[in-house]
Amino acid sequence: MKSSKKYCKVINLISATDDKLVEISDKGLLSLTLKEMQTIKKYFVTLKRNPTDCELETIAQTWSEHCKHKTLTAKIKLKYKKGRKFVTKVYDNLLKDTIFYATKKINHKLCLSVFEDNAGIIKFDETDAVAFKVETHNHPTALEPYGGSSTGVGGVIRDIIGCGLGAKPIANTDVFCFGDISTVEQLPEGVFHPKRILKGVVNGVRDYGNRMGIPTVNGSIVFNKRYNYNPLVYCGCIGILPQDKVYKKISPEQLIILVGGRTGRDGIHGATFSSAALHNDLPTSVVQIGDAITEKMFLDVLLKARDLNLYNAITDCGAGGLSSACGELAMNYGCKIFLEKVPLKYLGLKPWEIWLSESQERMVVIVSKELKDEFIDICKKEDVEATVIGEITNTKKLEVFFREEKVCDIDMQFLHKGNPKFEFDIEIKFQKIKKYDKNLEISFGKSLVEIIKKVLSHPNVCSKEYVIQQYDYEVQGNTVLKPLISYTQQYSPQDSAILWPKKDSYKGIVISCGINSFYGEYDICSMTESVIDESIRNIISVGGNLEKIFLLDNFCWGEIQNDGQLSNLVLSCETAKNVAIYFGTPFISGKDSLNNYFLLKEKKVSIVPTLLISAIGIVDDIRKTISSEFKSFSNNVYIIGETKDELKGSVLYDILKKNDSKVPSLDYKNAKKIYKTFDKIKPYILSAHDCSDGGMITSLIEMTFGRNIGVEINLSKVDILLEFCFSESNSRFIVEISPDNKEIFENLLNREKVKFMYLGKTTMKPYVIIKYKNEIVCNEEIKNFYNLWSKGLNL
Amino acid sequence: MKYFIKIVNNNNLVDMFSLNEIHLQGFTKVQSVSKLKIYKILGKISKKEIEYICEKLLVDPIIERYYINKKEYLKNITRINIWFKPLVLDIVAQNVYKAIGYLNMKNYNLEVYSGTQVTIVPKINKKIAEQIIKKFFMNELIQTYEILK
């Protein structure tokens, strides 16, 4: 390449000192470490030239935490105390040695493409496959809630359109973590109040999902003041595609076509920015704004083109824009890109800006020369812009041109494999568990009804109807089990969503999630176990089968350079591996978002470590779906599973401001036994609901809402009433059984040695009645509980 | 030509959500607050054609009406227009522009901008108006505002 350039800047790297290298990275918002800058310098020293701005930016995007998962793939030496001795464990690649390892070890026969493509793909039936991806969009949402969340949805939908040879999106999922909505303190400049963030986020997700004609069927919202400065937004999408369209078929001389929206300055540095801290001095360009109409138009065209076999590969322009999309597609071959051909929104963009722009609603498609005209014609007919911008080569180089000038010439090997590996030495210090205060009742001194009312109106427990009803969860006509079910203008929340994507069989897809914002504060291993268990039991409770459940992980952590945060991440990955292997539920996809912290007067304020586990399962017969609302009166009500003194991190303890006891952990053996047995007792279950936030009593009351059917239970056998009612122990369900099936149901559970307890009966009288030691401790009309539960968000 | 279009709800709805939040944050003197959609269309186009665009694209005739270049009366109220900053994608305007093309006005060289107009009752001083607008109605990172005089 020439040493002087007309259209791009040459950066003096080869003679730069270490200080200068750091300055170049900081000033350019590259988020590269000194070691990485030194590696880049070394590469260009061997080439005997300096890099262009375009080359440096390309490397920074490709090596960003967002694209490369540098921390999760790092080499980590972990030191911890076992007895009196220190033990060291080494992970060569944390992700490979934990999450991937679990998937490899399980070797599930239904997995088709895992951790390879834009989404994880599993077999649905003999001919079709299902793709699932969950992305985070935290930093953009903190800056612009509406734009950030809508582009989060748009982005994950494009991941599904761009996986394999293109899947048809059939459902969205959305999970949010917001700060304390009752915050009254003055927030720093540039930080929005959690209520405003919530409203903007919900509007963004609603507008994008609804306009795309994709139902939003599952999700969760949790609140914790530790998210006041950094909200978390997880957007998921599920798609269906034929099994013969699961793999891309790229070869040299094929053309690279850019499809969809035009390119502007929006979103530049999105990938590198997502690895940095939030502060109040960021450029307008980091904000992305979505356009669902454009995305819907090219979705329809691309599905048509896919079925006509008009293209060989497809991917979306996500973080890093064209640089990542083309760089990844052509990784094994090389490519030539001509940036002057890229359609622009306005003039004046520099080559590197065109190359890196994260303008939304763009896809890159690889088409053979013979089919180019047919492909472009079909796009034109639907008013979708499609432009040839380059071709696949066999040079193993990424070559980018602007007019006659070569602005980027990097070896693919260096770009994708040349980044220095991160290495960390960490030590784990285990905390002592505080002694549990058994005199809970005495210390609180309030009636059970009062406590129940407080728990039901807690933001993490109360109804999310305000949000759910804004989403179209029925569009496409596949939603069998909806997020809310009502026969009486009172809604019972459901544990999972079930979709019926193909009407020629009764096979279905079940989707759920598990997340908790409190457990992570105290015990990272128990938090990890609990959220995995929650996502699985949510699927089991609606009729899913443990043998056909697949997981997705999304780790959102705070400032990762902080030892405590990193060791927590390692522990979480290790625990996730163990649980997945034990249950035989492989991870099929994932995405991490690290460094979620805010710079508050030089002080770094991190979020609480948060792991979202999304689960997807295949059900053989959607007609056997079990919903959560009580079906009729005079039926028997049971709790399956064991309730333990696990109140730490519970909703009750958040209300009481207590932190003794233990965080709910997982009894692996019993949990698996319960889930396997659930499959056998399924035919006798009329309704089922898992016990999670708010404990057994919350689940029981939620089951009464849907049909306004009352319940009368006797807890005289229980030792500590509040513990039994509000402990959030894992692997528990409340089930409703007809008296006719009492014997067979109880026999089956006894035979499998599964712990269960008869609670009482459903009643025609719409009341929740609880008896304890010959005393009625609760006798409340359902509608009183419902009023509190349904208005808890207070927006 | 330069056209400023205001889309008004027939029932002059009060934005109760924002009003509650404004009161909660201590701006208790605000009696009412409402929001409406505004557009700026620049280019060689007649008023009649703009009326056609309003009727076909911008207004829901059942619940809304429109005004073009209407003089603002600011007695006892504070009115603020919020627009996107240059280079920020104005997706509503972009789709309006596209839709104008579908109305067989393809060769019109127009510039379209969309925004929000906030009306606060009563008239408040500039500093408080700025505080309210920044806190509840706009994102300074991507938007800019003008307080009407």
Task: Produce a short descriptive summary.
The complex is a heterodimer of chains A (795) and B (149). By secondary structure, chain A is of the alpha+beta class. Chain A is built from 26 helices and 33 strands.
Notes on the structure:
The complex is a heterodimer of chains A (795) and B (149). By secondary structure, chain A is an alpha+beta fold. Helix content of chain A is 33%, strand content 25%. In chain A, helix 7 runs parallel beside helix 8 and helix 8 runs parallel beside helix 10. With 149 residues, chain B is an alpha+beta fold. In chain B, strands 3-1-2-5-4-6 form a six-stranded antiparallel sheet, with helices on one face. The two termini of chain B are 22 Å apart. The model of chain B has no long low-confidence stretch (mean pLDDT 90). The chains are: A alpha+beta (795), B alpha+beta (149). Chain A binds chain B through residues 143-144, 147, 184, 190, 193, 195-196, 199, 264-266, 282, 284-285, 287-291, 293, 345-346, 359, 795, and chain B through 17, 21, 24, 85, 87-91, 94-95, 135-136, 139, 141-142.
Features:
heterodimer, A: 795 residues, alpha+beta, 33 strands, globular, B: 149 residues, Mth169, Chain: A, six-stranded antiparallel beta sheet
Q: Gyration radius of chain B, to the nearest Å?
A: 16 Å
The ordered H/E elements of chain B are EHEHEEHEHE
Largest sheet of chain B: 6 strands, antiparallel
The strand order across the widest sheet of chain A is 10-12-9-13-11-14-15
Mean pLDDT of chain B: 90
What is the global morphology of chain B? globular
Largest sheet, strands/sense/barrel of chain A: 7 strands, mixed
The low-confidence parts of chain B are: none
Low-pLDDT sequence parts of chain A: none
Please state the second-level CATH architecture of chain B: 2-Layer Sandwich
Secondary structure category of chain A: alpha+beta
CATH superfamily of chain B: Phosphoribosylformylglycinamidine synthase subunit PurS
Q: What's the number of helices of chain A?
A: 26
Strand count of chain A: 33
Number of distinct beta strands of chain B:
6
